[in-house]
TrEMBL record:
PANTHER family registered for this protein in UniProt: AMINOGLYCOSIDE PHOSPHOTRANSFERASE DOMAIN-CONTAINING PROTEIN-RELATED, AMINOGLYCOSIDE PHOSPHOTRANSFERASE-RELATED-RELATED
Gene3D superfamilies: 3.90.1200.10
Source species of the chain: Streptomyces lanatus
EC number(s) stated in the UniProt entry for this protein: 2.7.-.-
Keywords: Transferase
InterPro entries (UniProt xref): AGP_Transferase, Aminoglycoside_PTrfase, Kinase-like_dom_sf
Keyword Transferase tagged: yes
Protein name: Aminoglycoside phosphotransferase family protein
Domain Aminoglycoside phosphotransferase per the UniProt entry, residue ranges: 41-210
Main EC class the enzyme belongs to: transferase
Molecular function via GO: transferase activity
């Protein structure tokens, strides 16, 4: 029998790998509904769905290797990063999906959440007040109207698989929906600012880099306490706290 590997596990969901099969166990079936729907609509390679029996979704492993991981140097070439950017552009050019995603929340809701989180970060001592204040200022540039596109919503570099410079699969679509294109580009390059120009070259059109930097700050501010509470370390080298420090 193949070894059972725990890919990720916390109070909301867990993902197990058995050979070439991933079993995603999620307490919120609405997230799985979004994921299944998005993978069916996305014009980019996605995992094959093998079966679904709530609360479990079984998907096949995608071929290739990940673009990189947060907190680790990426060995991928500029051409590979550009290929990832081109795949993102293909997704953003697709017809809009039927529902908003994680990157598509109303501006007033997002602003309220960010301000509340900043207060909690300082009050709890999770981050220094000056670091929070500076990044809240930077994050303001992301809080503007945008034209919604089909976004992945959680486009971390570890969710993008390639073989050579060909994208072979993009995984984890539970936050997909209508959202801000620059949020996807920011998530893809979080902690890997040196590859932003390569991604934009593949994306095929110039973008507002200040807004991407704003999303780096905003996403990191919102993530720090959640990561700590779920057993992750946002202060590890190259991760969210370092992303915030880079804005100082």
């Amino acid at each position: 029998m193949d070894e059972v590997k725990v890919v990720v596990a916390h109070s909301e969901r867990a993902t197990l790998r058995v050979g070439d099969v991933f079993l995603k166990v999620d307490a919120d079936q609405a997230r799985i509904d979004v994921e299944v729907e998005a993978m069916a609509l996305a014009p980019v390679p996605t995992p094959e769905i093998l079966w679904r029996e709530p609360p479990v979704l079984a998907i096949a492993a995608v071929p290739g290797t990940v673009l990189g991981r947060l907190g680790e140097p990426s060995t991928a070439s500029p051409a590979v990063w550009a290929a990832a950017g081109a795949a993102v552009r293909k997704l953003h050019d697709a017809p809009l999906p039927p529902r908003p995603g994680g990157a598509g929340r109303a501006l007033d809701e997002l602003t309220e959440e960010l301000d509340r989180e900043c207060e909690l970060l300082v009050a709890s001592g999770a981050l220094p007040a000056d670091l929070v204040t500076r990044n809240r200022q930077v994050a303001q540039a992301a809080l503007r109207p945008w034209t919604p596109v089909f976004t992945h919503g959680d486009l971390q570099i570890a969710h993008v698989f390639l073989d050579g410079d060909e994208v072979t699969g993009i995984i984890d679509w539970s936050e997909a929906g209508r959202g801000d294109a620059l949020y996807d580009l920011a998530t893809l390059t979080l902690g890997h600012e040196e590859h932003l120009d390569d991604v934009i070259a593949g994306y095929g059109t110039d973008v507002d880099r200040d807004v991407i930097r704003a999303w780096w700050s905003l996403r990191s501010l919102l993530a720090v306490r959640w990561l700590i509470e779920h057993g992750f370390d946002p202060s590890a080298p190259g991760c969210e706290v370092d992303v915030l420090r880079a804005r100082m």
